[in-house]
Amino acid sequence: MTYRITVVCTGNICRSPMAEWVLRERFDAAGLGEQVEIDSAGTTAWEEGNPADERTVAAMQRHGHTGDYTVHRARVFDKRWFDDRDLVLAADHGHYTVLRRLAGVSEAKDRIRMIRSFDPSGLKGDALSIDDPWYGDEDSFDQTYDEITAAADGIVEYVRERLEG
Q: Catalytic: 113?
């Protein structure tokens, strides 16, 4: 069984590709890389076809990651993907709302979660949103990285439980 995850943000050039890459590494490190497929998408077509924002790639590199991030191309989330995704992770409340509207049926809605809902610090409300670093500087991208990595192990454990159960 392959467990499929899609991470979603606005344009698929900052938050969602960063989360995709971090999660892929975490699942590989946990020995689950062969069982979990991770991709990403945006809720809008604004950046469709574009590579990841260079500041996203720079943040990954600053934090010691060495992946080939040049192959990423932004794309738009397709509601038909709910048919074969086990978990859809939203970067902020706006994405969560759009995804739930696209999902339509309650079964698909149950597969949508906020990325930071897996952060063990027990965040609630607005704190669950990862701010868009697009409008910020290098520190904004590092904050995004920190928020994603704080939730990553919780996501891995959540999926591990589902794979074992």
A: no
